[in-house]
Design brief:
Helix content: over 70%
Oligomer: single chain
Strand content: under 5%
Number of helices: 5
Largest sheet: none
Radius of gyration: 45 Å
Number of strands: 0
Length: about 200
């Protein structure tokens, strides 16, 4: 491997260290703001380190066909150290600002959806319930006007029959029907005996 490739690899590792620092700070700020459950932090840490290793080896493969040398690790450490020395605070503030802007945009979108979609739907549902209430009241009113007098007339006309068919208290249906048929049979016999 020539000297030029070694310098290019060192520069790529410096940049990779800085990129890893940016991603780590961003992840740390986001996880602190979103309050992930404790168990998920370990999973996310593992995912970060797996992704970081894959990223570094991909860059290393691109720059010198994946040869591991001492200057590769030195470049990564110097890149991370320079990042944390000069850019870490700026990155944290920038990520916090982006999160605040995203939060405001999210709230504005939710409010817009509530105003343009949910509020009209609620109004429409309330209007439909109101109309159904008026319709039900009208139907009940019409039924009372038309069928209540007819029902009273039917009850008046069939009242004597109903009273005779109704089972007296303390009797079983069999006793009631037997007494009713006995009574009718006696009336029929009396009528025949009159002639």
């Amino acid at each position: 491997m020539n000297l030029e490739t070694q310098w290019i690899t060192l520069l790529w590792m410096l940049a990779s260290g800085g990129i890893l620092g940016v991603v780590f700070d961003s992840y740390r700020v986001i996880s602190g703001q979103l309050h992930f459950p404790r168990w998920s932090i370990h999973v996310l840490d593992l995912l970060y380190w797996v992704a970081a290793a894959l990223f570094v080896f991909r860059v290393l493969y691109h720059s010198n066909q994946g040869e591991l040398r001492f200057y590769v690790f030195l470049g990564l450490l110097i890149g991370i150290w320079i990042y944390f020395l000069f850019l870490s605070v700026i990155t944290e503030r920038f990520v916090l600002m982006l999160m605040r802007i995203s939060n405001k945009i999210y709230r504005m979108l939710v409010r817009t959806i509530e105003i343009l979609l949910i509020a009209p739907l609620k109004w429409l549902v309330n209007l439909i319930w109101l109309m159904l209430g008026f319709l039900w009241t009208g139907i009940v009113f019409l039924l009372r006007i038309t069928f209540l007098p007819v029902w009273k007339l039917i009850r008046w006309a069939f009242g004597p029959i109903w009273r005779k068919l109704r089972v007296p208290e303390g009797w079983t249906k069999v006793q009631h029907w037997a007494a009713m048929w006995r009574d009718r049979s006696l009336r029929l016999l009396r009528w025949f005996n009159k002639e």
